Each structure stands twice: as structure tokens, then as C-alpha cells.
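Supplementary material to the annual report.
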Amino acid sequence: MADAKIDLKNLKAGGFIKERGKDLFTVRLRVPGGRMSVDRLSRIAAVAQKYGKGFVHLSVRQSIELININFSDFDAVVAELGEDQQKVASCGARVRVPTACGGCEYNPNGLVDTQKSALAVDEKLFGTDTGHHKFKVAFAGCPFDCPKSATNDVGFQGGVWPALDAAECISCGLCDKSCTVGALGMGEDGKPVFAADKCIYCGDCLKVCPTGAWKSAKEGYSVRIGGKWGRNPLVGTLYATFLPEERVVDFIGSVLAWYLEKAKGAGRVRIGDIILREGTASLLDHLRRDFADYVLERTILPQVIDTQLPLR
Amino acid sequence: METIDLRGVSCPTNFVKAKLALEDIETGTTVEFLLDDGEPVKNVPRSLKADGHKLLGLKENGGHYVLTLEKGED
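Predicted assembly:
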């Protein structure tokens, strides 16, 4: 192998992960939001067939991983994947490939275009060195939250604020019946009554309304910060609501700036643990500078989940 | 008015049956569907609306729902 030339630039961004066996690596490919063209998939399959040992692995964060790749084949693998189109993903203390659900284009539950957001974040922020620890971002199209956004460093969850056009309401009561959080009841006039403080922005009332009497007054992302899983899980808490889709990249940039500053000297620590140390007010104030219309008055610390209970 | 009874048929079979039934009906005709409470009444009306039919009414009637709609353009 002494004469094998390896372009070390390929290794710099991460995504080449040492395996158990001698000389073998996993090559993690970048699949933002888990969507990929069938042409790309065919190309990847051909490369995996040629350089792997018959299998690929679908990572839990929606990436395709070429497994059992000999390190001497790195350059050939990268070249044959067509690196300009199929980027290798990352590992280490970097902004990771964002995950996302299918979003609103074909999923009838989706309220926002999570795929578009995931691509924008991947393009602008992927691989950004945090200096401290990994930084994960996820996009859920609605409060069903299949991507489990609150277990990410920054998690986005699409939401909609409902408004009733009473003239179009036929008093069927389906919205009341569908509202699982008790934000709707039926009034004496046969029209729904909205308890705004209970609403979680899921849009079930809009989706179920047979006449379209419930309309969207505003849409955007609920943003939760400070989540992670692993050995010491934290659930991220709510910092902003109805953040417009086009402000997502800047919002994450602002969170990252706070994290980089506050985690100085802290070593390999995720943002959730920095918030536990610093409190929430400092981050809220920082975010309010550029996102005053969306940032909450107050929030709570990341929620500790003790997965070893009841053994303790 | 024609009544299509979809009680006891689960999602998404009830919606597909409703679509098939509507294929044999003239545009502009009013029809009635009987739907179970729960998932069927939450899903079928909005799916039919998305298919371009005009929903006229939805009433509870002794444990099930009666959906009235006007068939849209094919």
C-alpha cells in the first residue's frame, strides 16, 4: 500500500470512519433530508458493488454508508461517486447533515417545506467546525414530529396558527373531535371555540375541516434548542415560534455563534450542557437581537432524561 | 340520492371504494357516504375534497357520519 496515493483533503471534512477490520473504512455519504434521486442511488449502488462487500448501511440520520471500503480505494470511490454531486458526509465536531421528514410536497400532514430547509442548511452550514462537539439539526414538517426534532442541538418543527372563517363553517364538529390537546370546543351557536393557550400548532383542525373554514393565519417553525441523545440524553426546549422558513439558516448561525463563544475552553461539550451551565436567559437575549418577533419571553432548561431509571 | 355505505371499511380501503363509486356517477350529482367515527371520518372527507369534490355537509347520525358531497370534474 506504500505507493497508494490518498488525497488527504477528502478525509478532512470527516465522513471516512475507521472500521473494525484492517484497512477498512465506512464512507458516509451526504443525503440531506434523506431524499435522493434515483440516478444518484444507481450510481452509489454501482460504486458499492465495485468497492464494497455486497452491503450498504442506511444510517439512523438518513445517510447511505458504504461499508467495508479499503482505504486505498478512497480516491477512486470519491471520483466514481462524482464528488461534485455526491458529497461525503461528516463526523466529529462539525455541523452534521440535517435530517428531515418528507415535508409538505406529498405528505398531507406536512405544514412546511422541510426538504427545502434541509437543503438550505446543508448548503450553507454543513461541515462548519464547532470547535467543541457535533451539532445536529433536524426538520419536522408538523408536530407529529417523526424526526424527533427536540433530540437535536437545534430542532425545527413546522406549525400553523389557525383562524376560523365562520361563514364557511358547517358546524360538523370534526375539528373539535380531532383536536387532541383540547384547544377546541363547540359553542352554543354551533361554531368552534378556540382556546389559544392550549394550541400546539399541529393544524389538525385545518386538515380535517371539510369546507376549508379553518385557515392558516401564519406558519413557520417552532424551534427547540439543546437536545441530544446518547448516554446522557437531554430534550431541547422551546425558544422560538413561527420562525419563517427563510430565516432558518441565519437562526442556526446565531445559535452557533452563541455556542462557540460560551463553550470556549469547555472542550467536547454539546450546546445543551452549555445551556445547563449558562442558563437560558443569555441565549434568549442573544437570539432576540435578530429574531425578536419569534423568540419567546422565557423558556426552561433542557430536560434531563435519566434512561437508567429505575436502577438508580 | 345514492347512498354509499362505507361503514366497517377501514382506511385507506374506504377512500379507494369511494373513488371507485364516484367513477360511475355524473359530475354535479349529489351523493351520500356513510362513514365510521374515528379515522374514517377524519380522513375520507378531506381526501375527497383534495380530489376535487365539493363537500356539502357532514352530520353525525347515531354513531356514524353522513357525508354529503357533489361530484367534481373527472
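Chain B touches chain A at residues 41-42, 45-47, 49-50, 55, 57-60, 67 (CB under 8 Å).
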